[in-house]
Amino acid sequence: MTFQAPRGTYDRMPDQQPLWKRINSVLQETAESFGYDRIDTPVIEDAKLFSRGVGDVTDIIEKETYTFPDRGGDLLTLRPEGTAPICRAYIEHGMHNLPQPVRLYYFCPVFRYERPQAGRYRQHHQFGVEVLGSAESAVDAEVIELAWCVLQKLDISNIKLKINTMGDGDSRTSYVSELQDYLDSRIKEIPEGIRARVASNPLRVLDSKDPKMSDITNDAPKCLDYINEESREHWETLLHTLNLLSIPYDVDHKLVRGFDYYTRTVFEIVPSVETSQNTLIGGGRYDGLIEILGGKPTPGIGFGMGLERVVSTLQNNPSDQKSSRQIKILIAYIGTSARQKAILLSSKIRLNEISAVVAPSRGIKSQLRYATSIGATHAVIIGDNELQKGEVIVRTFETHCQENMPEGDLIKFLANVK
Predict the structure, then answer these.
(1) How many other C-beta atoms lie within 10 A of the C-beta of residue 194?
(2) Tell me, what's the pLDDT at 119?
(3) Distances, alpha carbon 200 to alpha carbons 42, 91, 170, 273, 399, in Å
(4) Please, are residues 52 and 286 in contact by the beta-carbon 8 Å criterion?
């Protein structure tokens, strides 16, 4: 009997780690440069957190969550998205007492039971940011700028920003009513598999990728025509700020995002050449979510980034990748005494934050072949002669050169290697 990773999951192998490490480093450094602090929440949450926050009639809650009773009878859900848990933590830990707004970022695995396909997994990984406690359009622009900036720093440049506004709660309600009336008037033209959404969640109809829906959604009422004056001022100020920041955008009247909690600004960043699974970053404002979850009325905005899609984009564009090769030392030896010295020397090297591995017990030629196989940049070779003289031999694989040096000079030499 053999076992495989469950459908829709995968193993992240050692040769994939450098790219992931580079991505995570860029995301963390960029978020912190914008003044964001890291937060981590549990993988499991009370199932009601998502049904109340995301919405009972979204695809995620209806068909995609991993929900189960634990042995104590509590109904739990594996986290399907990152925003609701952050809002729960904001309420639970009294973060409203902190200076507002609170800026947070996170990395987390998320779980959705859906049909696996390119760029979509049942367990995938997400980076996200949330700003809680400010309704200013300048914060919307900041979040979008951060999203745009991380992709630029990752050398993902052939992208475009799609943006729309849902208006505030009252505007959204008026628009949804008008949209539903319009869709009802064309119900016979709507494919049967989509018709149920007209009554339960008409906004999701605008998201349909079915070619038969193209004319219907293109002719649908636009939310911008139903927003009130306050929401319009927020929207126009946001667009003005994006122009100041030189961030190009396309207003997409069909962009609504997938969760019930969105109000006002919604946005996605996608590759310039779009495919069926192409959204790199998606987010928006959710001014009513904290209150829905039992907190005081608190505005919020954020985004989520699917890391697998970012990895796939970089892997498909090797020229965009930067070298992530690090110094790695193999300590090769000849003889028992030299092996003991190799162990001590490897420990000393690692204390200076340089990767070091002691070669396996085999012939010196085999040890050096092993160095190549593990991607070592240098080999430090020790034999009886070197022990007697207090020296080591350092071989640089890239140049195929080697030199003898006093053991006491080795750390300084390695620290200066570029």
Answers:
(1) 18
(2) 66
(3) 31, 29, 18, 32, 66
(4) no
Here the tokens at position 151 are: 């992709």
pLDDT confidence of residue 261: 74
Among 195, 67, 316, residue whose Cα is nearest residue 205: 195
pLDDT in tens, 349-375: 999 989 999 999 999 999 999 999 998
Q: What is the rounded distance in angstroms from the CA atom of residue 50 to the CA atom of residue 291?
A: 14
pLDDT on residue 57: 46
- What order do you get walking across the sheet with 44-46 strand by strand? 44-46, 75-78, 67-69
Look at the chain and count its residues. Answer: 418
**pLDDT at residue 231, as a whole number:** 93
Contact 222, 182 (CB under 8 A): no
CA distances to 110, 115, 167, 312 from 118, rounded to whole Å, are 17, 10, 33, 9
Pairing of strands 123-132, 102-111: antiparallel
- pLDDT, position 144: 97
Give dist(CA 237, CA 240) in Å, integer.
Answer: 5
401: tokens are: 């050169």
Q: Which residues of the chain have pLDDT under 50?
A: 57-58, 319-323
Distance CA 103, CA 306 (A): 20
The predicted pLDDT at position 91 comes to 97
Q: Do residues 201 and 58 make contact, with C-beta atoms less than 8 angstroms apart?
A: yes
pLDDT of amino acid 319: 47
pLDDT at 276: 53
What pLDDT, on the 0 to 100 scale, is given for residue 104?
Answer: 98
List domains and CATH numbers for the chain: 14-168+227-320 (3.30.930.10), 328-413 (3.40.50.800)
Q: pTM for this structure?
A: 0.85
- C-alpha span between 333 and 359 (Å, rounded): 8
Instruction: Supply the angle between the helices 192-200 and 169-185 in degrees, to the nearest 10.
Output: 140
Nearest 5°: the CA angle 286, 291, 292 is: 85
